[in-house]
Amino acid sequence: MKRFAYAGLIVYALISTYPFLWMVSGAFKTRGEILEDGLLPRQPTLDTLVSTWANLHFFDYVLNSLKVTAMTVAGVLVVYSLASYAFAVLDFPGRRFLYWFFVSLLFVPGITMLLPVVVLEKNLGLLGTHLGLVLPFVNGTAPLTVLLLTASFTALPRELRDAARSDGAGEARIYWSVYLPLTRPAHITIAVLTAVPTWNEYVLTRVSISDPARYTLPLGLESLISSEVPRYNEVMAASLIVVLPVIALFLLLQRYFVNGLVGAVKG
Question: Does a structural domain hold residue 198?
Fold first, then answer.
């Protein structure tokens, strides 16, 4: 029975990865070869990747995406790490209500907030700016981030905080020197979970950004697809450029990512 289950999983994995493999293969095909049958290119070439990068302002798109993603990750780690520490360790009026309020936002579909966010950004003069993307992205990660980081902080023994306080450490010092280093895997997990959807975000970016100079990678890819004569080999090359940093980030931080999730679940 297990053999049939394993065989079914292998078949499912192959079917699931086929579009990705076709994308990678298409990035190394010529324009005339891209729509032909066969997964592997007959004459692999780097010309498509080079021309896509050079001619379609992808370097500018990458810089814009890096800027938005880095600002979002930094904001999430600073704001919600401190908030989660307060929920897990400190005792203040309304603590449990605020915690469950944040967590309950997990069940609110993000698309329902699109129109209010756009109207608010317009009134604040943020529409069309990268900061107008960063602030909603930071806010949107609140439920999951607070849930995971609070669980990680709660899992640490209270005796650690008591010992630090007996040595004269203040609350800020306890957070920075005791709790933060011990929950590093959880923070790296949050960084990955924040960076990936921010890097790939399209809907809010499409609604907010109209200046091509401020396009992020998804908008740059869309402009390539929506051209009068789509060059599908360049579309595949651009798609590969978009996903490679995400894959590299996960492979680089895979160990911390898994440990962070396991620690949060145990907590």
Answer: yes
